[in-house]
Design brief:
Layout (H helix, E strand, L loop, with lengths): L3 E2 H8 L2 E2 L11 E2 L2 E2 L10 E3 L12 H6 L4 E4 L11 E4 L3 H14 L4 E6 L4 H12 L5 E3 L9 H7 L7 E5 L8 H8 L3 E4 L7 H4 L2 H8 L1 H5 L5 E5 L5 H5 L5 E7 L4 E8 L4 E7 L3 E7 L4 H16 L4 H9 L9 E5 L2 E6 L5 H12 L9 E6 L8 H14 L3 E5 L4 H8 L5 E4 L2 H11 L5 E5 L6 H8 L4
Parallel strand pairs: 4-5, 5-6, 6-7, 8-10, 8-11, 9-10, 11-12, 12-13, 13-14, 18-22, 19-20, 19-22, 20-21
Antiparallel strand pairs: 1-3, 2-7, 14-15, 15-16, 17-18
Length: 461
C-alpha cells in the first residue's frame, strides 16, 4: 500500500479526527491496514468493525498497544489520543469500503475480477501465475473476497503493481454489484454457475443473475471471459457491453486440444485463435482444472501475452491449500480438497479421481462431509453425491450427522460406505483401512472440518 495520510483518510471516509488528538496528527501516514489486533503491525491503520457477535470498538486499547498508528473507529474508548490518531466514523465497514474506493481511484492498474460458483480461487491462482510472467501482480490472499476482504485486498495494492486479480464472492443477492463498484474491474471472469449458495438465491437462474452483475459492471473497452461449457455463457454475453471471450476444452477462442489427463495433472496444446499455440504441462489434476487454466490463459491473452508466455506460467502454477492438493502419505495418494464443497465441486473432484490410473490394485476412497447453504435442496443434494460416488466405485466415508444422506445415497444400490458422526472415529477407521496404492479424496464444506479428519488419518510425510 502506498502511504496515505490521516487527512486523506478523513476525506475518503467522511470521518473526523477526534477532538482531543493534536492537529499535527493530520499529516501522519500509514502503509498498511488491519482489522485484526492479533495480526496488527507497528504503524498500521486499524479499522474497527462490528458484526453480529463482535465489536472491535471495544478493543481499541489493544490496537493501540499492538502499535496502531491510526485507528478508524466509531468511538475513542480506551485510546490515549496523544499517541494514536483516531478518525471517528459512523460505520466502520462503510468507512473501510469508502477508503478502498478512494484508494482504487489513485491506482493506475488493470483489474481482473473473478466470480462464479466453483473454481474462483483456482482460477485466481492460475491467473496470477500466468500474468506474473510479464507483470507485477497483486492477487487476493486467502479468502479475502467479500464485502470486507475485497476492500482489504484493494488496500494491499502496492504503488508499482500493474495487474490486480481479485476474487468476488457472495452468499446473498445484491453482493456482487457493490464489490464491482469498489474494484472497478477491467476484465471479468465468470467460472461457472452451479448450486453454491442456492439456499439464499433459490435457483441457478438466481445465482446467474447475481454473478452476472460482474458482466454488467465492465466498461465498454473491457473484456468478459466465460467458460464455453457454461450453460449461462450467452446469458452473460448478452448482459455486457464489453468484448466477450469464450474458453474451453476443444472450443472457444482460447482452448485446449490434444488433452491428456494424468495422475498428477494434464498435458494439452494451448490454442489461441488459429495460429498461436504452446504445449502446457499443468501440474494440477482434474478436467475442471483445465477449464480454470484456460480462463486464466484468456486473461493473459487480453493483456497481450503470447501462448508460450502463458504456458510457462501455467506450468509453474501452484494452488492455494485445500484445492485438490495432492500429497503422499505412506504410499497412499491423498487429495486435499477440504477448503469448501458444493454438489458441483464434489462431483468434479470425484470425476477427477475416477479418471486417474491406479497402481498395485489401489482403491478409490471418498471421505465426504456435509455441504452447506443448500437450504431445501440439502437432502437431495447429499443423496445424489453419495449415489455418484457409489456409481464411480468409491468406498464412501461420510463424516458428521449432516452428512448421513451421503451414506444413504451411496448404499441405496449396495455401494460400500461407512458413516461416522465423530471425526476421531472416522480417522481411526481410515488409518486401519487405507493401504499403499489407494487414492483418497477429502472434501466438505468449511464447517465440516474435513481437514481435521485428513490430518489425523493420513498426515503428509
Amino acid at each position: 500500500m502506498k502511504p496515505i495520510t490521516v487527512t486523506q483518510i478523513i476525506q475518503a471516509t467522511g470521518g473526523q479526527l477526534a477532538a482531543a488528538c493534536p492537529s499535527s496528527m493530520a499529516g501522519r501516514a500509514v502503509s498498511a491496514v488491519s482489522t485484526d489486533t492479533r495480526t496488527l503491525k507497528q504503524g498500521d491503520l486499524f479499522v474497527a468493525l462490528k458484526g453480529e457477535n463482535y465489536d472491535a470498538n471495544q478493543f481499541l486499547a489493544n490496537a493501540q498497544g499492538a502499535g496502531a498508528s491510526v485507528i478508524l473507529a466509531e468511538s475513542v474508548s480506551g485510546v490515549d489520543l496523544d499517541k494514536t490518531a483516531v478518525v471517528v466514523v459512523a460505520d466502520g465497514l462503510l468507512a473501510l469500503q469508502r477508503l478502498a474506493l478512494w484508494y482504487r481511484s489513485q491506482l493506475n492498474i488493470k483489474v481482473v475480477g473473478i466470480t462464479g460458483s466453483n473454481g474462483k480461487t483456482s482460477t485466481k491462482d492460475f491467473t496470477a501465475a500466468v500474468v506474473g510472467e510479464k507483470f507485477k501482480v497483486n492477487a487476493t490472499r486467502g479468502n479475502l473476497n467479500n464485502h470486507i476482504g475485497l476492500p482489504l485486498s484493494i488496500l494491499s495494492t502496492e504503488e508499482d503493481d500493474e495487474v490486480c486479480i481479485w476474487e468476488m464472492g457472495m452468499n446473498h443477492p445484491g453482493e456482487i454489484a457493490p464489490l464491482c463498484q469498489i474494484a472497478k474491474p477491467d476484465i471479468g471472469v465468470i467460472t461457472n454457475i452451479g448450486t453454491a449458495h442456492i439456499e439464499f438465491l433459490k435457483s441457478r437462474e438466481g445465482i446467474a443473475e447475481e454473478k452476472g452483475a460482474l458482466a454488467k459492471a465492465l466498461p465498454d473497452e473491457g473484456t468478459l471471459i466465460v467458460a464455453a461449457v457454461c450453460d449461462f455463457a450467452h446469458y452473460f454475453a448478452e448482459r455486457t457491453h464489453a468484448d466477450v471471450i469464450f474458453a474451453g476444452n476443444g472450443r472457444g477462442l482460447v482452448r485446449a486440444e490434444q488433452l491428456h489427463l494424468t495422475e498428477s495433472g494434464s498435458t494439452f496444446k494451448l490454442v489461441i485463435g488459429e495460429e498461436d499455440t504452446a504445449m502446457v504441462d499443468l501440474p494440477v489434476a482434474g478436467r475442471h482444472m483445465v477449464n480454470n487454466a484456460l480462463l486464466a490463459a484468456s486473461v493473459g491473452h487480453v493483456l497481450g501475452m503470447k501462448a508460450a508466455e502463458i504456458a510457462r506460467g501455467l506450468n509453474g502454477s501452484t494452488l492455494t491449500s485445500g484445492r485438490l492438493r495432492r500429497y503422499d502419505s505412506a504410499g497412499i495418494t491423498v487429495f486435499d480438497d477440504t477448503y469448501n464443497a458444493n454438489p458441483d465441486s464434489v462431483a468434479a473432484a470425484l470425476e477427477t479421481l475416477n479418471e486417474m490410473p491406479r497402481k498395485n490394485g489401489g482403491r478409490k476412497i471418498a471421505v465426504l462431509g456435509m455441504m452447506g447453504e443448500l437450504g431445501i435442496h440439502a437432502d437431495k443434494a447429499h443423496l445424489e453425491v453419495g449415489r455418484l460416488a457409489s456409481e464411480f466405485g468409491f468406498q464412501v466415508v461420510s463424516v458428521g450427522e449432516n452428512a448421513e444422506n451421503i451414506y444413504r445415497g451411496a448404499t441405496e444400490d449396495g455401494g460400500d460406505a461407512e458413516q461416522f458422526n465423530d471425526i476421531t472415529a472416522a480417522a481411526d477407521w481410515l488409518k486401519s483401512f487405507c493401504k499403499s496404492g489407494d487414492l483418497v479424496l477429502f472434501k466438505g464444506s468449511r464447517s465440516a472440518g474435513m481437514e481435521r479428519v485428513m490430518n489425523k488419518a493420513l498426515p503428509q510425510g
